[in-house]
Amino acid sequence: MPVRTHRILGGLLALALALAGLVALPTPSRAATPVCALACDTLDPSKAAQETFPVPDRNINGRILRLHVSDPDDMAWASIDNGVTGDSVWLDRSWDRGATWEPLLGKASIPSTWTGTRTLMYNITDPVGHRRGWIRACGDAAAVTCTDWVYPKVCDGASCDGADPATAAGDERPVPATTLFGRTISLHMDQRNGTAWGVIENGGAGDEIWLDRSWDGGATWPEGSSLGRTSVPSGGTTTRTLMFATRDPRGLLYGGAVRACGREAAHQEGSCTAWARPAPTRARAAADALMASYHTNEGWWRSSWWNSAVALTALIDFADRTGRHDYDWIVSRTFEQNNGVFPAGGRSSDPVEGHFISRAIDDAAWWGVAWLAAYDSTHDRRYLDEAVTITAYVHQYWDTGTCGGGVWWNRERTYKNAVTNGLYLWLTTALHQRIPGDTVWGERARTAANWYLNSGMINSAGLVNDGLTAGCANNGQTVWSYNQGLAIGAFTQLWRGTGESRYLDTARRLADAALASPQLTRDGVLTESCDTGTASCDDNQKQFKGIFMRHLDDLANAIGSAAYRAYITKQADSIWGTDRDSLNRLGQRWAGTRPNQTDWRTQASALEALTAAQ
Question: What is the pTM of this model?
């Protein structure tokens, strides 16, 4: 239907409602833009994972108007029953708490000889667009009416909008207060439960306080404007709002930000604090902020293929270490949405040919690591099978004809480097440990380990350079933390599987070198060469340090090393103390120096450090 027709019908609907006096509603907004989350708008209700009726039905001249909701899908549909030909039903969806709405979604009319009909399904919220929606069912049967809006309150477990601050488990002020005409406006948080409220002090009667809530870090807040708005009573000097949640797990919205705002009674202008997110724990705060960048519809962190595998691994590690399983759903989501074929530019700059495989051998291997982590966490055999498929692909590029062995970095066979061979060694060792009775992968792991130790990539200082020259010598290129970490992790795993002390000795030697060398550690903080001076790290390098921390943590756990554990704690303390803003965004430079870079890659990297310190 053309937009103009929608607007005409919307205007007629508003007029009809006003004349009928059935429900007072504001003017509808423009026609809907389709929303895609776990599924896209207009999904058939027969595919719903669940059917509930969270708001009361409405009766329209004997017809039953009903709103149906499937929480696992985060979608809704409407139905009308006991009707006659021509009766109609539709959904309204609002992004600003009912002030405006997208009208007539899925409008359907009862056909001849039928007594009822239903709409298709529509998303309630829009996690990709960082919008929290409300939805309701509406019908026309010689009169027009609508159900209540569904889910007007955000609930995060037992913590829901509208709770009394007197019930808070704590009271912290995450950002400085702001002042306005002598009034103090402050933001307060119950960090443990992720709820917040605002307070105005030193005021007078009629002064106002409220919260704004944003799902995109403070860029917009249409659904969360003026939450809990309240005034200082006559004779008073202070008041506070009720509490409001900052996560909406049902709507797949995480990392919500809030601020406190206030107005002095005699003036129109207001003042607000900075935006902030709660931090129930360091790792949980980092995970929430990371999830705010996950593209639910596509099942990855957009624009970086192998980095998404590492980010997924970080969240799996977080869940396993902390026992928090808020994000377990993204494991299957990522697998199902990405285990296919994509053209160049669809996921990677290279075509993805299925099974997470492309011409970049190391890119595929990172996904193998992710699916082994998923298998360990879920015990779902499909993840182990996928890791076997990926590692078998990587093995095709093991070549004894050049440098006596080693895996090529790409299909063109241009380079034998540390990252690809560190991944291959870790994967083969891990598969051997997880496949009962295996001999094939175990033998490949031993062969790869012996080659790695004799390849020359580990220099005389115990540091791993980037790779080999065409003449099969150490190329002396940059020592990156992830190459060091992969080798530490691979030899630690091989020691676990074989009991051979030489492998554990190698892991320790590599770890000690990393902790002692200024090429990787400065003033006790893990530092890449691109973390120094005016340098900046590229999108790949942003994630290197988290990989190192994952494998150092593995070694520390294997041998109970207090020194390694202290180093891990030092990284977490430095990140939290110097490299975090009020939205819990964590940057590239863990020492907090400038210039710094912050995005989901740096977030995932820092999450691994915070998880290791748990």
Answer: 0.93
